[in-house]
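Morning!

This is the sequence you dropped in the shared folder:
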Amino acid sequence: MVSLAVRRESWPIRGSFAISRGSKTSAEVVVAELTGENDGGDAVVGRGECVPYGRYGETVDGVVETLEALRDPVARGLDRIGLQHALPAGAARNALDCAFWDLEAKRAGHRVWQLLGLSKPEPLLTAFTLSLGTAAEMGKAAAENADRRLLKLKLAGPDDLARVEAVRENAPRARLIVDANEAWTLADYVELAPRLQVLGVEMIEQPLPAGKDEALAGLRRPVPVCADESCHDTASLAHLDGRYDAINIKLDKTGGLTEALRLKEAAVAQGYAIMVGCMLATSLAMAPAVLVAQGAKVVDLDGPLLLARDRPDGLRFADSLVHPAEPALWG
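The structure's back. Tokens below.
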């Protein structure tokens, strides 16, 4: 029999973190923990972490309630496959899906990548995100992180060109991508995209609001445009044709590793470049995403770097690389 435990945790952010929708000083996460036995009768534990996101109508209380309602179904035999139908894509399913994968690996005595038939994961170049601020503030942050190889800039519309110029001046060797978090208008995009191309920006993430991005269809895109809020799971792909060049896969949107891998396969088959991103969370949330991110064009799994502290046995970050998880953390 498998038992499910659910808990909420708060992890302080180093300073604060701001995007176009607001700022916060802590990462509020929910952890699903499954306890079962391996073939030898020894107890094993699988864990998964998610970040409920208000943009998608999620709250910590709501996700905890949703997961706790599955205690009895899990005890009666609900498994990872059944979970895909028991819950919709979203944070709650993500935590439990990843916990099932972790439990399966520990029961089998193998790594998750082996269970999936994947190659052994390699370290990946990850972006480091600069919080939204004034041009001067973001320029200062860029100078402090100028040795990082890939910087991601949070933007908001007004004064964005000055922000990017300040970052480029203070981190001249860094590769740059930007994320507007739905804050631009079509006029903003038309004005800014060619200028950002001149500044060496390699990708623009979700410039227009989801559901109002039809204007991107057929539009000249001097910098590749990546869907984030517009792309959640495999079903989302039908609405993206002609509007985007890439998609950002986040496990909290797909509802876990299972659907994330399906989405990646389908998106690649349709010609989309792959970005793998994250919410502000600990290494436990990043670990499954490292498997999805193998071979991705852009990797943005820097969540733990933005926290004041991380979990024991957290992912190792060195020289702008994120290294795959050790079994003590996940998988």
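Headline: Residues 3-112 form a domain with the Enolase-like; domain 1 fold (CATH 3.30.390.10).

More detail when I'm at my desk.
O.
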